[in-house]
From TrEMBL:
PROSITE patterns for this protein: GNAT
Organism superkingdom: Bacteria
InterPro entries: Acyl_CoA_acyltransferase (IPR016181), Bact_Acetyltransf (IPR050832), GNAT_dom (IPR000182)
Pfam families membership: Acetyltransf_1 (PF00583)
UniProt GO molecular function: acyltransferase activity, transferring groups other than amino-acyl groups
This protein's record includes keyword Acyltransferase: yes
Keyword Cell inner membrane: no
Keywords: Acyltransferase, Transferase
Domain N-acetyltransferase: start-end pairs: 2-152
PANTHER family linked: AMINOALKYLPHOSPHONATE N-ACETYLTRANSFERASE-RELATED-RELATED (PTHR43877), BLL8307 PROTEIN (PTHR43877:SF5)
Protein name: GNAT family N-acetyltransferase
């Protein structure tokens, strides 16, 4: 059974998964095109981070950033390598979408990279109703990123 709760950003396993996430983003995107939040960015009052645990083991993380205009931004989605393809990302995404709705957001948006490394995540987002759309939150569309939105 998967338990999703607010993440303890001081926990060693959470910090390790966040470090893996950042390293993966930097390995898969050119310099200047990585917008993943580091630990200090995740500690701001406008960001809530959740962890998914399976039998006590960290299975994944995901975050929601309030943009202040009735929109939320999905951030820092990462499944632990030991839990890939087990539904962790889908469960976290559904949880965060429900939270965005509960907060009264009109739209949930995300920015992610382009290329093979991002295809599994993009497939999940599209299956859940996200579609490519306009720029938001200061992002500039490039060949190296994609901007997706889900009306709520």
């Amino acid at each position: 059974m998967l338990a999703i709760v607010e993440a303890d950003l001081g926990a060693a396993d959470v910090r390790a998964l966040l470090a893996l996430h950042l390293a993966g983003m930097h390995a898969s995107s050119p310099p200047g095109h990585v917008f993943a939040l580091d630990l200090s960015g995740l500690r701001t009052p406008d960001v809530t981070v959740w962890q998914a645990r399976a039998g006590g083991a960290l299975a994944g993380i995901g975050a929601l950033k309030a943009l202040g205009d009735g929109t939320g931004e999905l951030k820092s989605m990462r499944t632990h390598p030991d839990h890939l393809r087990t539904g962790v990302a889908a469960a976290l995404l559904e949880y965060i979408v429900a939270e965005a709705r509960a907060r009264g957001y009109r739209r949930l948006s995300l920015e992610t990279g382009s290329g093979a490394a991002f295809e599994p995540a993009l497939a999940l987002y599209r299956r859940r109703g996200f579609a490519e759309g306009d720029a938001f939150g200061g992002y500039v569309p490039t060949d190296f990123n994609q901007l997706l939105h889900l009306p709520l």
